[in-house]
Structures are given as C-alpha cells and as structure tokens.
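Hey, I'm writing a tutorial for new members on how sequence and structure tokens pair up, and I'd like a real worked example in the thread rather than a made-up one. If someone can provide the structure for the chain below, I'll link this post from the tutorial.
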Amino acid sequence: MPSFRYQIVNVFAESSLSGNPLCVFESGLPFDDAAMQSIARQMNHPETAFVLPSRVADAQIRIFTPAYEMPFAGHPLLGAAHVIRQLQQTENALKIETKAGVVQVWAEEDVWSFQCKTPTYRAPEANIQQLATLLGIRESDIGPSPLFVNTGTEQLVIQLTNRDGLMYCRPRAAALQQYAANRNGVAQVFIWVRDGALVHGRFFYVDRGTVVEDYGTGSACANLGGWFLANGAPRPLSVEMRQGHMIKRFSNLKLDINAARQIFVAGKVVAVGTGLLSL
C-alpha cells in the first residue's frame, strides 16, 4: 500500500497551538483532482495544499477545503511556502503558482509575507437591512461602504460600527449564500472593526450548508487592504489584524499598504507535525 508524506503547519501563529492549521502534501503528482478533493475531506483541515512542479515559478500549489477547490488563499500560500523552502533547500524568497496567478513570497526566519494582486471591486446587491439579517445584527451595526473585494478570492467585506456587533453576530447560512456569494457561488463574508492600528475581524463561509468561522484568513486580510484603497485610506498604512478570538484559536496577521498602493500580508508559520497517508 503506497504512502504519501504530508506536513502540518500553523499559519498566522504565535505559538504551536495557535493560528490557522494547514495540511501540506509534499507531492501532489500522484493525485488527480477527485483524489485531492477526497484527501482534503479526509484530512478535514480548513485547507489542504498539494505541492506540484511549475514551469513558471519555483512550485505550484493546489488548495482544497473539505468541500471545494480554491483559486487562492493566504494561509495555504504561506504555509506551503514554508514547506517548499524546506523541501527545496532554497533561499527565503519564492515564486509560487496558484490558480489565481503567480505570487511572490518571502521570509524573515519563519515570518512569511506575500504581495497581493491589484484588487477589483463590485458593490453588493443586498441593502443594509439584508446585510444586517445576514449577520444577525442591527442595521446600526453596519458601517459604511460594504464591498466585494477580490485580490485573488472575491469576498464580501463589511466594516462594523462597534465591537458588540462583531462579538454577537450570528450569520445565517441561507442569507449568507443569498447575499454574500462570490462570482464562483462561494459564500464568504469578512466583518471587522478598527481600533487605531488594530483590526479585529471574523471571517465566515458556508461549508455544505453550515456556517463555519475561520481561524485566520490571509485572503480576507488582503481584501481588507483592497477595501482601504477603495475608500481612500491614507498611505502608507500598517495594521495588525487579530482573528479567532471568539473561537478560542488566536491568529495574528500583518497588513501593509505602501505609497504605491501595493498590498502586503504577513504572518508567522509554525511547523507542528509530519505524517504518512496510506492509500
């Protein structure tokens, strides 16, 4: 029975048992699309990444949740980069091919960064009342300029006016699917409040009919950068984003926007285990 090696890392972590967990298979060559999806469902991590050769970058990755493939996600990108650096014995800068394009990543020790794609935008069709219903909060909790932002994965980004709305929101799966589905039909929403140089955020998505909260979401942090640009935030801008506080699994992400409107996301990667999957 053949065995296939994988590594477990935590991304946006400050300790071994924090951040967003990721399973990385060191080689995805033995697997077709259906097998990758089945393996991701078996591993049951928020995402599972498969490393593949690339003709245009140092490596390619495919990213799967237990339910579907994603063109891009920040925490699998940085976690896979950490593993690829070890496998290839490379320097601290890599180019990684994703389905959303080639992304540059680099590290200072175990803190990894990536430069985000130029954002695109569209306004949500839902009104404030419908967005409040989606989140299970008051209309007065919804801040200005809800916006779909895409720096690799399109997501609905909603600023809230207070911490209570952030803490006590109860998203509804049917409304989330109706009002927050992106152009690929995937329902995702990132809600946040700002406190000076700190952003407190929560990210929700629908997985097989159930609302799930993510531990730490690099793509949402990147899209927050796009939201800041769309709303004329002064540049340069640096904020720390904290996530996972309501689900007892803390993640810390760093967002930077320079004067040239370039968006960067960073976070620490901690390796926590290896294993073999026998099929």
